[in-house]
Automatic annotation (TrEMBL):
Keyword annotations: Heme, Hydrogen peroxide, Iron, Metal-binding, Oxidoreductase, Peroxidase
Species, as recorded: Solibacillus faecavium
Keyword Iron included in the entry's annotation: yes
Biased composition (Basic and acidic residues): 1-21
Domain Catalase core: 25-413
One Pfam family in the UniProt entry: Catalase
PANTHER family: CATALASE, CATALASE-B
Protein name, UniProt field: Catalase
Reactions it catalyzes: 2 H2O2 = O2 + 2 H2O
InterPro entries: Catalase (IPR018028), Catalase_AS (IPR024708), Catalase_clade2 (IPR024712), Catalase_clade2_helical (IPR043156), Catalase_core (IPR011614), Catalase_haem_BS (IPR002226), Catalase_immune_responsive (IPR010582), Catalase_large_C (IPR041399)
Cofactor: heme
Amino acid sequence: MENNNNKKVDQLKQFTTKDEGQPLTTNHGLKLTNDEHSLTIGERGPTIMEDFHFREKMTHFDHERIPERVVHARGSGAHGVFESYGDASDITMAHFLGEKGRQTPVFVRFSTVAGSRGSAETVRDVRGFATKFYTEEGNYDLVGNNIPIFFIQDAIKFPDLIHAVKPEPHNEIPQAQSAHDTFWDFVVNNEETAHMTMWHMSDRAIPKSYRQMEGFGVNTFRFVNANGEAHFVKFHWKPVQGMESLVWDEAQKIAGKDPDFHRRDLFDQIEAGNYPEYELAVQLIPQEEEFKFDFDILDPTKIWPEELIPLRKLGKMTLNRNVDNFFAETEQIAFHVGHVVPGIDFSNDPLLQGRLFSYTDTQLIRLGGPNFHELPINRPVCPFHNNQRDGYGRMTINKGRVAYGRNGLQNDTPHVVDQKDGGYAHYQEKIEGRKVRARSVSFEDFYSQARQFWLSQTPVEQEHIIDAFCFELGKVETIEIRKAAVDMFARVDRAMAEQIAQRIGVSAPDASIEQVADLPPSDAVSILKNQVPILKAKKVGIIVDTNSNVDDLIQSLENEGVIVELISDKQGMINNREINHTLDTADPVLYDGLFVAASFTDVVQNRKMQRFADEIFNHYKALGYIAFEGMDKLYANAPGVVTAPDEFINALKMGRHFDRTDATG
């Protein structure tokens, strides 16, 4: 046995390499002069097929995991319908946007990015928001995130970003977290990440539910109308219920109490008829105004401030049906930014250009071959005909002997059609330039919008950002990385960086570092400035005993669409109402508010009830009580803490009460 072990060790040694100190090469040993930029025509032109290094790097990355997705592995989906608000033919030929009231079936998949399929859903992470429109002209995929920008400018660096944020390879720790050395090492060595990192440290990265988070197309696309007139376009999904996020302590506890928290909420609310709704809106820049702004509109690390470029609403999506089989639908859905319809085209956004290659390449390995479009969840609702044949998973049975173009045996069919007959034609953009691996200098401002984001937040949101930085960097073991992060973000806001430095045990930012100049704040990027007071679909726990009389409160809450669950010291019936949970099987982090209408004789049960109330209070949620001795002393005059049922309903409607100065969050 010992001899066999030695043989195995020797076998492994043959394939062990140490990369430190070595020049960067391709897999075939070719030394590289540049690994920062894709090969483009001109500094702002499209990526070209000749870029063998990009294709090798991205192909290898796309095939790193089987069978789950490399990114966005943990997801949940639902069916629905999109209804157009009006005729948008002045800006796009897309048929599904061409008539008021026109309805198009959709499927949406929400997801986290970094974690595996088995990871928790409330981790600090970007959320995927991908929508497949089954239009009469073919499938259109709007593949986006819940944050409007991204960490990197060029897709060639995407494998590096994901390698950095994934569990570290020497010990596969930590899962679904960015709070570790390799991620922050990547951040401080790639300044273009500054803006996105500010969003990542904000409450946007811990949404309360999929129903209450925004979605964005992230990249810059084009709309083209029937006259050939083009607009650059950014896509937005606006939740009708408004935005809401968790607080960090709550998010961590939910990850343990209910790691399926987001998918459970989505599934349960659809089953209950509380259908999530989102309005589709676009920002538009005429082709001739491409260089009008003080930021590059093709830079995926930049927003288009809504105050400069207002939104135009195009329609509303309603998610109204859960999947019948999670694997067959949610897991086998295959999105691709290159799945477009006439009237929707691409820009030279370097991140988008790489995505156009990567998605098909990914599906080939995940779904076993080129016929993933034939799976029921991916099949278009319109007919499709071409000369592609065979391969893994082929379902279509093509009749006849012809499988090639320019034929006489089949009257030269299937044949191409003109644009006027619905054929897709790319926008004819004039491109001139040398083949280069470089990025336009217009992409080099890494900090101005990061500071704009900071200045746009409320004081509460700014406090949460600082707390997030301190938590994340506090988990970083390498002190030099902590220090580098403090110095980097001093360019965004020196006072913020000084607070972080003090709490994570590093020196204050270097005096030579200059904070960037202010840009006008953009209220649209704040969650708390855009809250929608709402009651429908919120979940309330009411703690009761045999003496409780809460019928009127329950009726009032249910009349508003609130989900009510009764909690007591034991299950069974109280006053002809079924007890849903005990103090042991329920948890305060799973509720939006709590009303205490009990006082138990058992000391232990009262302590459990006190823990419930404390956690509700510390997470800034609505808290009501009657009959519970000691509450007045603990929570006297605290915002959102009430004793009257009608006051409780109002406190619940207003959301979190962040003006509780003694809550621990």
